[in-house]
Amino acid sequence: MNEYKKMAIMDIIQSSNTIEKIEKFKAYKFLLGDCRIFLFDEEGSNFDDSVKNKKIGKFGIWGIGDYTKTWILDSKHLFERSLVRVGKTIDFDLNILTYLNKVMMGHKINLDENEFLNYLSHLKNTGFQIGMTTALMERV
């Protein structure tokens, strides 16, 4: 990366608010090209509300960060109101996979089955991909 790009990125990041960062990114677009800048701890987000932490009964969806304060600057999302489409993956732990297996096999589970099914429906309706990396690590 050349020195001019570095200086432009530093100027953007050191701006006092999100609107100013967006405006500077627009001004430097010709210099930055296909650059993306991920901003954390902003006043708002250009992600939709489906990335918010959520509790559904005894079940929860918790991100590793507060995505309601994350903003991505790139040439495709230059405007304040433009939402960024992101892939969302949730990693089930071993308990959830055990509950899921029991429900699929027609066995009783030790919790409110409707609550669990509502949780799974929410994941499906908001476009989450399912992973099981956490459960695999628990087993190791």
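The record above closes out task 2.4. Task 2.5 opens with a second protein, given below.
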Amino acid sequence: MEDLWMIELMNKLDRKKSQILFGEHAAKDKNLNMEDVDNAVKTVQIGKIEEEKSTEEKKRICFKNYFDKQRQTYFVVAEYYPDFIKIVTVNKRKGKY
């Protein structure tokens, strides 16, 4: 069961419809290709919540999603703002986690 702060945060913005932007770290330091960018956005929209990696004080929620085609799991840390969701960082691992 998700913590109350996560539920409140996620109720404010529909993650399937909200604008999803990339923060500087995710955009510059991660060397993401277009497929990675698409998969990161999809992970925020439809991924499962990783509670132990989420932090309430920074209003960050970590999502994960496995992509069959690439055989990779994407972990995306996202920060919620009033009008959009910002992807802070993206990690991908081979295999299913």
